[in-house]
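We store sequence, tokenised fold; for instance:
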Amino acid sequence: MDYSLLSKAPLFKGMTPDEVKIILSEVPFRIKKFQSGLMISQSGEPVNGLIVVINGVVKGEMVDYEGRVIKIEDIPAPGALASAFMFGSRNRFPVNVVAVSDGELLLIEKPDFLKLLMKSDILLINFLEMISNRSHFLSEKIKFLNFKTIKGKLANYILEKAGKESVLVTVGMTQNELADFFGVARPSVARALGDLEKEGYIEAKGKIIRIINKIGLADLTIE
């Protein structure tokens, strides 16, 4: 196992690879391989312990009542899965987890992980920070999914990428990936981008977007 990669995981922040190896040696753990396209966990299944991607990439996605698949996020190594739900009274996966590539998972059962948290202040603080950050991410995602129009979703995405000061945005996803992210068809994304440009909100050149009318974009997010 690559302990140098694990030491870069949020859970092990501030620990050296040797320290990660030592602390993991104190409890049983398993390594589980997965293949691209595999359904790793389904929405509603119990979260029985810590799950960390130690190699490869997985994604969280949900299916709405009309059967449309909405990608929530990609989770590359060394990200954790459903950590914020592990100790809840309803400790179940909120979304489907699907493998994007071949890879491996580190699995530690809940009682054993609890022992580690009680032994290490660093792990405990890092874990609390992780679940706080996940709560913030999920609240932002819920807000995003509530936007009714594709233009509203795109406007929010562009403004979030730009921040308060910048007017230049590098889009980190292809139109197909944006369509998955928004839970819509690719032509709808292309059409909405074209409309935003025609209506004078943005200028788009490849993956670079220049914001022309920031106030107008913000107005689209509240329609």
